[in-house]
Write a structure and sequence with these properties.
alpha+beta; globular; about 210 residues; about 30% helix
Length: about 210
């Protein structure tokens, strides 16, 4: 079975995305324990460490290159296309496209594909990042063969912390913004930057 990539993850690893962030005075660099994940940071202190360059929320980075304009792709569906998988970045961070197709093909029923995909990603994440909080996962598996009575669209979202870090949702100094593991917070830096965080909060209230 051949895998066709419809879209790609828009993140700071892309040259154009990184250039926009830097042009707007934002910073891009990876953490030592995640050298392959380039993250977006505010100009003056190490926060929030967003693993993507386009988002609806994360307003603290809007002035520093973060945008919410999507790239749009069109593809003509043919008879050889069997299914479409829509998934969040946490899944693609630990599962290759080929592995996702393999998991989809091995599921006994279509109704369990999204759950199986997410559970496989959780297992792979804990193996790859044993000391990090497990990412939030969402997956939609859409089967294109409408002649099959078992064709269905399935959705599953989980937020499972790793055993080492079962302390609940990560919160930052910006009211109303709950963070998943796609955001990294350096507590030492934040502790030294309370005045700067207060200035940002005051600016938001204005």
């Amino acid at each position: 079975m051949k895998c066709n990539i419809f879209t790609y993850l828009i993140c700071s690893r892309l040259t154009a995305e990184e250039a926009r962030i830097r042009k707007c005075k934002g910073r891009v660099f990876a953490m030592r324990d995640e050298p392959e994940v380039a993250r977006v940071w505010l100009p003056k202190y190490d926060f929030p460490g967003l693993a993507m360059t386009r988002a609806f929320g994360d307003f603290c980075l809007k002035e520093f290159g973060l945008i919410s304009v999507p790239d749009i792709f069109y593809r003509r569906i043919t008879d050889v296309d069997e299914f479409v998988v829509l998934a969040t970045d946490g899944i693609w961070d630990v599962l290759s496209n080929e592995k996702v197709v393999e998991i989809m093909s091995c599921c006994p029923t279509r109704s369990c594909t999204a759950r199986t995909l997410v559970e496989s990603a959780v297992k792979a994440w804990r193996s790859k990042y044993p000391t990090s909080r497990v990412d939030d996962y969402a997956a939609v598996c859409l089967f294109l063969n409408s002649n099959d009575s078992t064709a269905s669209t399935t959705y599953l979202e989980v937020n499972i912390p790793s055993p080492e870090q079962d302390e609940g949702p990560v919160k930052d100094d910006f009211p109303g913004l709950d963070r998943s593991s796609t955001v990294r917070v350096d507590n030492n830096v934040l502790g030294e930057s309370k005045n700067e965080a207060s200035e940002v909060d005051a600016k938001k209230e204005l």
